[in-house]
Amino acid sequence: MAYNEKLAYRIRERLADLPIIEEKEMMGGLTFMVNNKMCVGILKDEMMCRIDPNFHETAIEKTGCRTMDFTKRPMKGYVMVDDTGMKTKKEFDYWIDLALDFNAKAKSSKKRKK
């Protein structure tokens, strides 16, 4: 799995006090599920954040942020943040808080039948 281990550590440390956290390897990276919902992830050296789609346009104007287009299909409500957008603890916490705020309102994806 090719993802930034230092970024994974930062995310783990930040989410450590939350009650329901699960890590899943998916999309060629690592995803952190909060309350059984996709919340934050890592693809290579970028952090993926699931945010309120209504805030998407504002978010992508921030330094280091772009729309997630993992499959060449832009996904509103999912952003990628590179190192320039999360250098400081304050910047990093901003993105994590944005994802956690939306997580409380987000719907769980339907589980696929095996």
Separation, N- and C-terminal Cα atoms: 24 Å
Quickly give the CATH architecture: Alpha-Beta Complex
Strand proportion: 25-35%
What shape does the CA trace take? Answer: globular
Structural class: alpha+beta
Count of individual beta strands: 6
Total tally of structural domains:
1
CATH fold label = Aspartate Aminotransferase, domain 1
What's the order of the H and E elements?
HEEEEHEEH
Strand order in the largest sheet:
1-2-3-4-6-5
**How confident is the prediction overall: mean pLDDT?**
91
Low-confidence runs (pLDDT<50, min 5 residues)? none
The main sheet comes to: 6 strands, antiparallel
CATH class: Alpha Beta
Tally of DSSP helical segments: 3
Written description of the protein model:
The protein has a six-stranded antiparallel beta sheet with strand order 1-2-3-4-6-5, covered by helices on one side. The chain is 28% helix and 31% strand. The chain has one domain: Aspartate Aminotransferase, domain 1. It is built from three helices and six strands. The longest helix is centred in the last third of the chain and has 17 residues, at 89-105. The model has no long low-confidence stretch (mean pLDDT 91).
